[in-house]
Design brief:
Four copies of one chain form a homotetramer. Chain A has eight helices and 25 strands. With 339 residues, chain A is an alpha+beta fold. Chain A has one domain: Jelly Rolls, CATH 2.60.120.10. Strand 13 of chain B pairs antiparallel with strand 15 of chain C, so a sheet runs across the interface.
Chain lengths: 339, 339, 339, 339
């Protein structure tokens, strides 16, 4: 449908666009328009570049020394791994500190390697050991430091693409936090499922548990493997123990154990996800495209795809950590699974 | 901080970006990065272009014959009036019908002029009279028709910029709905505040009330003006009567009455908004920039601005309809007001 | 099963009882043990006794001049009309005032006759016209007065049998309230279903709407009668417009319109109820026992019964107001309907 | 105020009572009317009577072989330890089974002594070891059996006084359950605070965790003692891990550790409670009355009292299990603490 030139010009001058020219792009049939593509980053390739950033960039200048995974389907300046998920790999060298700040966006850290680092969140000092999940919800002060003898590397996941898109992304710099004496206090207050400090009963607006040690998560997965049927998924969601809800408003975290030789398919769904390999190796098939993953690799799963992950070892379990935007989609009531 | 060329190339080839180069853009201090600018569209300018679209574009080819307001701060193909809000002006001529479809995005219609049109939502046929608000929540089938003698024009507001960005925006075409006999049934079931059909008590996942007639809203505003202090805002939120929550998961609707001569300031806040002038004329000042508005004009209010609206008539009340993304921001816990 | 005398004595001396002797009483099969019996109080009988109390008992000595309906199945000192519901008929003569107090129990008032009375609740002065529902939730200060020329009579319903049983029932006397200027302010703030004052959005712990005028309720019932199928109940629940929940935590209120000649059966359910006849006359059948009701009569419906009400007029609609303990039962998850 | 005899008779014949004669009893000033008195039952006294019931009463005739603690302030046939709490001590001998039934009332079992018993709840077979808490929420099928060599004794707590008072208490007998293979499955699915099976995310109406082993609770208390300030209470609430809410709708469970020599005061509050001594010995002072408690003793704490508990050992911690009706009071919004 060709419009008269003067009409087109009049529309342009008034900052108007004809909907009919774009309606099928905006709301296509069958599948949404997606720029995000399935992708895998190999840790073996990433790591040297991250290590070299440690040589090139002083932490004082960087504020955060991280390499951002930019989905090949998006322009690189977008800094999006998935539609609403930012993924970075961050390095902190011995003796360094990443200064205290806070921002609108919510973040989580999943530790990849290195021991002895700490993240301090709103005055609570949290150890960073490989496999640990640490939350820094939107608006919480946080800083990182590494005082022992080895570099620490972690994966950052943030909802900042969403917050930035909403034109609400801001930050604030703060003074060094003086962490309270109780190192990792939340883990001592919240240990056993179904038990919470009496005085915290009924609090629904707080993030009382900020660190989930991998040692415990792995143990819980192994317990679960004994508690469910042999063909059921061994899949645990990380939740706020005071509410039972996912621990961040927009991003969901979960841990998946694949028994030796196990292959597991997930329904096509409206949410996107990022997988991080904690232990083991195997394959991921995303809408028919295969990726072979090894320890610490990162896989991006777009919206509305079919996903199958498989553990190719016949003797060892594999463990995957997943971040997705399902909580956001549930909160705005667009989350769907397609059988 | 200049990086070695080979390192820059290596990052690019691996789809990586250095965070430190972009961190202040992504999470700036003091104010978020905003592309959306304050803007006003005059109905007196818009209307002729919309009427001409009726001559140029057959409804059968357009699916929806609408002109989209593209914020001057964004590229026009973005179709965003505000960060998460799409605004269109739609025309339906006598004898026309806009066919039945449904989509992931949620929409609302605010009728500007013309009488005798109908929107049918999930089998409920709803009259479209000037000032009426009609909801077509995500996933609900909806079609429009106009059988009487005059064109009908309405404003569409959708959260489609968000849903598209999340790569979850889809649509489906449907057969013509056979509307149930009970014209505008929800308005007869939900009339008085505090009274709901007994059998619907406790339903929290439905949209039971789909049409809010302007006649009633205006009356409720005039009642409220008598019920609040003289210097309090006369401002009503449209809610789901079964839950008390805003009527769409992402978009909030409200109606504001400005008494003769009244000037009202709103706190700087993290949400963006779009104002539609139902009756009257006056001014809007957005972070120091002034806009004079008249009947049916549309004003875009970016995030994090100070807003003052004023009724310049000393004898008549003015009425504004507002759409904002505060419900979305509340659900993901980033909504803030700055005193 | 006979126990040795010494054992019985030992149990008694230790304040112990053998469960096996009482288990079937405590948790019988098929139907619960019920003391509450179906009962009807005729207004024509009640009214003279209430009027006489006005001659016998000065309001200053009575604090509240009310006659309490004591279910014939219970000892009269129990003051229970139904298991958890207290029902009284209260009289206030011209020039009298029932002083300001507040208590743990929640109450509601349904006006039977007389014009010109007021109840003041937490500083809001509410007119009492026949058929109006006025809430005085637990903990709210309230006083009544009648300054015009005729006696006012209303029905009180309270959850005090429950609160007393929980040994938590207390009261406090207060100074005369100085009611704010805005007579019946909540009705001007909450008029149309789906519209609430913007600043009150999201408040979930308040009782924003304290008076439901009968004029509006009756109109809403008549509207509903047009909006539902001919064989559907015309039954409205009174709710908190900010939450959609029943307006008191323990007691539910609803209004039922019976079209001319209409007979309506309710499922057997775990809740008990009290019916008050606002207009009309008809019959109630409760587990096979019939009661003929006329204007202002009160009928008690025990738990777990089948109830049918019928309007015996072929020309006029009848209107019933119902109070039940379903909200309490829902909150503690024991509410059931049996099909 | 003396009423004329004929008037009194007329009221009686109409099943009416004058409110003014009872108003201060029903809603007293300052403190509620309370029949429940502070009381202690010594296990050393209870146990022999319970053992003797094992000799006197065959389980087949008893259905449940339990002795009920009847508060001395109430008539013994009331079977109330506290206003809304039934407490029994139950005995099951080797080889015995207490048959499958379910009822409206909710129950919990706290194991006192004996090993090898099981409770099967809705097909899940749960071990009963000393100190374990086992839930049998209202409506869930449950049976008990003891197949190993020693008697098992537990404390039952039910909300049956409330349910009976509401005239909604019923039971149903069922066939023997065939417990699913997975012994104690819920404990393998819910182990670590903050981790829940992915597929159970968002379920809010289930009781997914039915057994809380004492071994874990004790460990969690000892962890908490390290995680809180020295003068803070070491007090854990038992919650539903999918919701963060107390695990039964009416009854709250918690576990308190008293460090050696620790004395702890609780605010006066509207709820009543029952304490069971898991380990240790000490004192309880209730509104000035002292009780010396030892292992397995049971103490009843009325509403609106001041409570202080003290561990009189200078070397060992003491552990108390508490049941209260605070969840009920919170749900109906009457729960209060007085500072």
């Amino acid at each position: 449908m060709t419009l008269p030139t003067d009409y087109v010009a009049a529309l342009a001058s008034q900052h108007l666009a004809p909907l009919w020219a774009s309606i099928r792009t905006l709301i296509p049939y069958d599948l949404p328009a997606r720029s995000t593509v399935p992708a895998l980053w190999r840790y073996v390739d990433l790591r040297p570049l991250l290590v070299r950033s440690g040589e090139l960039v002083p932490i004082e200048l960087a504020e955060r020394r991280a390499l951002v995974l930019c989905n090949p389907g998006h322009p690189r300046e977008n800094l999006r791994a998935a539609p609403a998920i930012f993924i970075g790999l961050q390095l902190l060298l011995p003796g360094e500190a990443a200064t205290n700040h806070r921002h609108t966006a919510s973040a989580l850290r999943f530790i990849v390697e290195g021991s002895g680092g700490h993240t301090t969140v709103d005055g609570e000092k949290l150890p960073m050991e490989p496999g640990d999940l640490i939350l820094t919800p939107g608006g919480c002060w946080h800083e990182h430091d590494q005082q022992s003898g080895e570099p620490v590397i972690w994966m950052d996941a943030l909802d900042v693409p969403l917050i930035y898109y909403l034109e609400a992304s801001m930050s604030e710099a703060g003074e060094l936090q003086h962490a309270a004496a109780g190192l990792d206090a939340s883990a001592t207050r919240f240990r056993r499922a179904g038990l919470v400090p009496y005085r915290e009963l009924g609090s629904r607006d707080r993030y009382p548990l900020l660190r989930f040690p991998w040692r415990d998560t792995k143990q819980a997965l192994q317990d679960l493997a004994r508690g469910v049927a042999h063909d059921s998924a061994v899949h645990l969601a990380y939740v706020n123990p005071l509410t039972g809800e996912e621990c961040l408003p927009t991003l969901g975290c979960s841990a998946l154990m694949l028994r030796p030789g196990e292959e597991r398919s997930f329904p096509r769904r409206s949410a996107s996800a990022v997988l991080h390999v904690v232990e083991g190796s195997g394959d991921a098939e995303i809408d028919g495209v295969s990726f072979a993953w090894a320890e610490h690799d990162i896989v991006v799963v777009p919206t509305h795809v079919e996903l199958t992950v498989a553990n190719r070892s016949s003797t060892s379990a594999a463990f995957l950590f997943m971040v997705d935007d399902a909580p956001l989609q549930r909160r705005i009531r667009i989350y769907r699974e397609f059988s």
